[in-house]
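Is S-adenosylmethionine placement plausible here? Inputs below.
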Amino acid sequence: MEPKNTAARYNRIAQWWQTEHQNSSYGITQLERAIKFTVNKGLAIDIGCGSSGRFIKVLSQQGFQTEGLDISVEMIDLAKHLHAEITFYIEDICTWIPQKLYSLISAWDSTFHLPLDKQEPAIEKLCNALEPNGVILFTCGGGHTNSVVSGTFQGQDFDYSTLGVDGFLRILIENHCTCRHLEYDQYPENHVYIIAQKIAPTS
Ligand SMILES: C[S@@+](CC[C@H](N)C(=O)[O-])C[C@H]1O[C@@H](n2cnc3c(N)ncnc32)[C@H](O)[C@@H]1O
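Reply from A.M.:
I modeled the complex. Tokens:
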């Protein structure tokens, strides 16, 4: 599914998402694990932040100067009401051109919606937007090879694609990131989260 179609579906459930997820702890332990690997608490960005800004809240509380990005106009409009002080971007991760380097990038349950051929360039882009020792946290479908599945969520049809964990690990390595943690956190669901860190040049 093209990102603009994913955005249209999330626009329809943006209000539901905010009500449902504002105080949700889903993924927060994993975010806190990622934060522990950071060396510098500079800039952070939450990719596919949704309308609740729940990751943004934790990152800000932990001392990061935090930004949010989402392709859904409705998601961002609602997030701005809760977090007026935060810089938000309405952008498709596939076409977004990062202008800064980040100490931490999170992409929780967002990049798994990208078309299969957009997965590698997107993860590569995020790796290249990390400062030395910067940390990335993202979720993906598991398994060992490419796959695309469809599902219905809150009455909306969505697609999910994955390169398999081996594919994502290859991209991380090729982009000078080392895997710090990889877990099937909802097993037997095929949901994986990965924490990786940009290798700092040795002086
Ligand atoms: C399942 S929600 C997760 C929201 C948030 N990360 C959370 O955990 O509360 C997926 C989010 O990713 C966003 N998204 C999907 N495709 C995107 C893309 N190509 N670029 C930017 N955001 C995208 C959606 O608009 C939606 O807000």
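Short version: Residues 3-14+28-198 form a domain with the Rossmann fold fold (CATH 3.40.50.150).
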